[in-house]
Amino acid sequence: MEISKAGSAAPGGLTRLRATVRDLWDELSASERTVAQYLVSAPVEQVMFASTQELGTASGTSNATVVRALQRLGYAGLPALKRELAADFTAAQAPDVRLAQRIAHVGKDLDKIWNDVFDETQERIDQCRRLADAKALERAVTVLAEAREVFCYGVAACELAARHLARSLGRIGRRARFVGATGFALADPLLALGQGDAVVIFQPGRPLSELTVVVERARSVGARVVFVTDELSEAYGDRVDSVLLAPYTPTGTTNESLTGLVIADVLLLALTTLDETSAVEHAHQLDALRGQLLNPGDQRGRRA
């Protein structure tokens, strides 16, 4: 098989893709070869911003064939391939250029914009489900269930998932707090972390220096750590109690916290079922307090 050198990425993710296609070419079906040939020949930008449906159409196959081909090539899904290609793509392109390319890809077609966002959302959630590790989830639930207090750490886009988990844990009767500080300001909440506590870190890929400080502080005081991440699982896997994989996307089409929020909801539901009586009682108290805060006859906000 001859592989062209089309595409604008520097060596890296694209080089690995081409090498993998060469090595596995004889093991691919005819339709999978068609997909593989398209992936290594198309401009990287085109693959980066495409859905499996669009890749299926462009390669003359189907979205199901694209998914099968990616799995045969060793990728958990399209987001995993995009992430590898993005390492080179983002290094070679300035943020404003990448934004312009994303805008050019979707154009002003509202139907396309709608479908692109929903397609990528579905792809990320599907991949998150495929990457689920039952034992890691069981360890994470045990850590949170036994915790005196849960510190939910997330910065920037990851703040959404961390805040959501902290607030929702409180609503089912578990002590929790959100922590989103960086730099020197992080020292104050870390000072309160103690034995018997747990930390849940939401951070998909950026190896922030604060992450190491949080993990090492937890280890030193006898607190346990659950890490919700994508690329950092290997770097921190042997230093934390559980790693839950939450795939993100480099395209910027969907929010970085999307899969982190889904995993937070899984943890919350699991913890709710462990102590249903307490969860129901706290839900009742929350509703009663909301009722006291409303004006007479005003029912707005009761389900906020």
Q: Given the helix and strand composition, which structural class is it?
A: alpha/beta
Uncertain parts: 2-11
| Mass-distribution shape | globular
Strand segment tally? 5
Helix content: 55-70%
Topology pattern, helix = H, strand = E: HHHHHHHHHEHEHEHEHEHH
In whole angstroms, the N-to-C terminal distance is: 58 Å
| Number of distinct helices | 15
On the 0 to 100 scale, the average pLDDT is 86
Strand content: 5-15%
**Gyration radius, to the nearest Å?**
22 Å
Describe the largest sheet: 5 strands, parallel
**Lateral arrangement of strands in the main beta sheet:** 2-1-3-4-5
Description:
- The N terminus is likely disordered.
- The protein is 58% helix and 8% strand.
- It has a five-stranded parallel sheet, with helices on both faces.
- Helix 13 links the parallel strand 4 and strand 5.
- The chain is globular, with a radius of gyration of 22 Å.
- It is α/β, with parallel strands linked by helices and 304 residues long.
Distinctive features:
single chain, 304 residues, alpha/beta, five-stranded parallel β-sheet, 15 helices, 8% strand, disordered N terminus
Write the layout of secondary structure elements.
Elements: H1 13-24, H2 30-41, H3 44-48, H4 52-58, H5 63-72, H6 78-92, H7 95-106, H8 110-130, H9 134-145, E1 150-153, H10 159-171, E2 176-179, H11 187-191, E3 198-202, H12 209-221, E4 224-229, H13 233-236, E5 242-245, H14 258-274, H15 276-293
Helix pairs in contact: 1-2, 2-5, 4-5, 9-14, 10-14
